[in-house]
Request: fold
Amino acid sequence: MSKQATADRLSGRQAGGTVAEEPIDFRTRPDCYRHWRVAIEPPLAFLTLEVDEQAGLRPGYQLKQNSYDLGVDFELYDATQRLRFEHPEVHAVMLRSDRDRIFCAGANIGMLGSSSHQLKVNFCKFTNETRLAIEDACQHSGQRYLCAVRGTAAGGGYELALACDRILLADDGSSAVSLPEVPLLGVLPGTGGLTRLLDKRRVRRDRADLFCTLEEGVKGRRAVDWNLVDELLPRSSFDDGAKARALELAASSDRPAEPGGAIWPEVEPKPEADSIRYGALRIEFDRALGAARLNVLGPTKPPPADAPEALAGSAAFWPLVLARELDDALLHLRLNETRIGQLIIESEGDPGTVAAFDAFLDREREHWFVREVLLYWKRVLKRLDLTARSVFTLITPGSCFAGLLLELALASDRAYMFEGEDGRPPPSIQLSEREHGAPAPSMRQGGREHGMPAPSIQLSELNFGTFPTPNGLSRLETRFLGEEDAIDSLRTLLGTPLEADDAEEAGLVTEVLEDLDWDDEIRIALEERASFSPDALTAMEANLRFPGPETLESKIFGRLSAWQNWIFQRPNAVGEEGALRLYGTGRRPRFDSERV
Reply:
């Protein structure tokens, strides 16, 4: 990258003279929360929504009526993660509001009306992932969620309640739930409300249709009869009744009764103009190509011999640290690097040591801490699945794609594997030097010594169902859809290092390339990808990544995201006379009545 390009990048100036938005800072911790209060009363935790109206993520709007933007949800995500890892003694979590007449008005309309299309879409995607993580905690972590709605839960506020195991509503004549996006805003509920009404709560279709067109929502006995909420509680005893119901949920948990949680790793990325360095992850940017190379660093030590109880107190457990850093990197790429269209995943380390960690995780998977690490990896891998980027994995000499890390290759759109030993010295130029007309560098790991042995990959037990994709199947089952014999054959290869020809025969890589072909073939593949329409690629990849059965999750990210993405660009929503633009002005939107 030229000096001027680097300076423009750091100053927020994009090509063509336009000024980019400031990078979004999504990292937080409890002592920095502006919108949520966390109280721990074992076996319960209370998450209380108390939105600071003046603390929006961006200037230009106020977060009135406990409405939320990405900043509010960043705190919610951080809180739910910490409750899972730092507080094993918490068996149930109650979501509530500190305001008497409002639980949550949902997504802030001023924020939606003034945000770029990319930010609106990323907002919906992140909030969906956060709510799905709450459901994951309910289903797999023994940490159940209950939502106590006193006042109005509208739009995204009700969708947050829908993510919980149980919804309680105050029987006070005014508390209500609603999904008013269609009549008020000309858009859809953005975080799974339509899908959860039908697939999760089994609300009858005709009732759901009526409910989604009622601006005022539904309250009282009708809300229970339609299964929109689980129970009505008298206003006079609402708090005590909600706590009693939360204790009932907590009683079913298998989490430890005593404190002694994990140390939640704090990420400390070191950004430069064209790279970011983490502890177990390196990112290099080739902005001319629109690509980011993610180099995953394998463990340098074998798994500890200690029992998992000792691990929970350590902030240096490699699988947890790497998951945390990869999660952070994917969020940064989504939110702040929208012109990076390709992710090139590589790894560096000893596959045998990675396999030893896999064996440890599989052996101890029933321990609460190890279970949480595996569940976190599942969620991070799903975030990769759902990131609108082309993902290529390069398996080269010195790689360590075994078990857990092999999932990264299986999640990729393509995986290329180097055949044979690496007999050449590493390239002396970096990816970014292509901008100056230098010869295209090798995409192998430039920092490694030459003469390394042939790369191999290795399957472990974790590859057979521990990390399902949004369609509910493992990545192997998704890859070999309906081919049970192929899965059975792969099981016979457990623990066997597979070099290029064997990996290709097993169907685990896209293509095997020899030394003489590697540089040119990889360069052509990446440059060809960069020449395609990013819109078409996003749609193609989303269609191809999740074959097979549909789940609540795949419907949310497939049907809902596709439709909302389209609606967010239509004049009826965001035009000068669109509903999102005019909301709150007193003017009625003017819709083009043509059905498309």
